Amino acid sequence: MSINIPRGTQDILPGQVETWQLIEETAKRLCRLYQYEEIRTPIFEHTELFSRGVGDSTDIVQKEMYTFEDRGGRSITLRPEGTAAVVRAFVEKKMFGNPDQPVKLYYMGPMFRYERPQAGRFRQFVQFGVEALGSNDPAIDAEVISLAMNLYWELGLKKLKLVLNSLGDAESRKAHRDALVSHFKPRIGEFCGDCQTRLEKNPLRILDCKKDRDHELMKTAPSIIEYLNEGSRDYFEKVREYLSELGIPFEIDPNLVRGLDYYNHTAFEIMSEAEGFGSITTLCGGGRYNGLAEEIGGPETPGIGFAFSIERFIAALEAEKVALPVEKKIDCYLVSLGDRAKDYTVGLLQQLRNQGISAERDYLGRKLKAQFKAADRLNASFVAVLGEDELDKGVINLKNMGTGEQQEVELASFVEKFREQQG
Ligand code: HAM
User: Fold this and answer.
1) Which of 93, 176, 356, 394 could form a disulfide with 227 if both were Cys (CB 3.0 to 4.6 A apart)?
2) What is the number of the ligand 1 atom nearest to the C-alpha of 113?
3) Residue 323 C-beta-side C-alpha neighbours within 13 Å
4) Closest Cα to atom 31, ligand 1: which residue?
5) Using a 6 Å CB cutoff, which residues line ligand 1?
6) Three-class SS of residue 78?
7) 273-285 pLDDT, tens per residue?
8) Is this prediction's pTM over 0.70?
9) Which of 161, 171, 129 is closest to 41 using CA atoms?
10) Which residues lie below 8 Å from residue 180, measured CB to CB, with a gap of 6+?
């Protein structure tokens, strides 16, 4: 009996992986421009990090974590997201003491959520994310958002919508929370069991409920925007001003609450508006999380970041039919005829590669025509043909596959000539 891949996971095969690599490389290049440095944290953490960090009342913690007891009896969780772990490392490694502040980090790697798999939703997915810790300047909110937008634009996505909201500071959130409780409490019996618990624990989560989203009270629920105090309003205004300054269009959605508990002030999502993208349109989510470092046992530290999955990035590229420059190509294919010539190409291939020339040869004992076909499939710029006659004469026949031009090159200086030819 054959064994299949687990539900909600994927194999990324050659032919697909080049798109992944291009996104990863572009993201890293942009991070260098914006001065974000890479951080790598473990794929599993103590469960408590996420229950405290992401929040006990969130769907992620309640329903979606891959949690297990290790052999030492500790509760371990495969990370469902990156922010809590990055903040844990920031606190544990005392990065708040670094001379360069804010600390600007990026990460990339697999995350795990036990969700119902569907288009754009996996159980293992790769997130790319950034976190800027230590600054309360609304300009860094705008920087973080512009990094995400520019990355999407750079790779050719156009049909994007940036949605923005402010969740305010602790005081504003408390006022909004009270208003939500008064709004929902009289009719909470009409809501699902989860929402009934949420009313006590975290009424904001009710607004994020997938089951009750069409209930009439959802549409009339008090919006956080009305409860922002002056400081929070000013902060939000500054973020909007900076985004306009950067030429980044956005829409305000007072109902955007995000699915994780650590957010305050700026919250945002980037959606795909491409036709046929499917029902899950969020490409990227992020926001400010000023209390998170303290929650994890560190000093008070402001922070903001975002994350997106490469899976959804690729889905958006496909929906917009963006063709990326990920063509297969090699510099030189060595065609050989006869045993002596074949033997000779073993060393010659290595010489080419040693000079940084991408090269390949036949390993299946194929005939001349089939070797040329293989060279074509690899999109070789040049094919070098070596037969017994050439070997005796000390030459090799070099064909430029673009122009069809052929020339005989001395075998002894072939690699050198090849490099010259390439320019
Ligand atoms: P999140 O909204 O839970 O936020 O996830 C961010 C992004 O991860 C989503 O917009 C989506 O692109 C991707 N994603 C989430 N779940 C899945 C899934 N099951 N399959 C495929 N892609 C998925 C966070 O994770 C926060 N840590 C973001 C953040 C960073 N906030 C501040 N800093």
Assistant:
1) 176
2) 19
3) 1
4) 286
5) 81-83, 113, 115, 121-122, 125, 127, 129, 131, 259-260, 282-287, 289, 305-309, 311-312
6) strand
7) 998 888 888 999 9
8) yes
9) 129
10) 203, 204, 206, 207, 221, 222
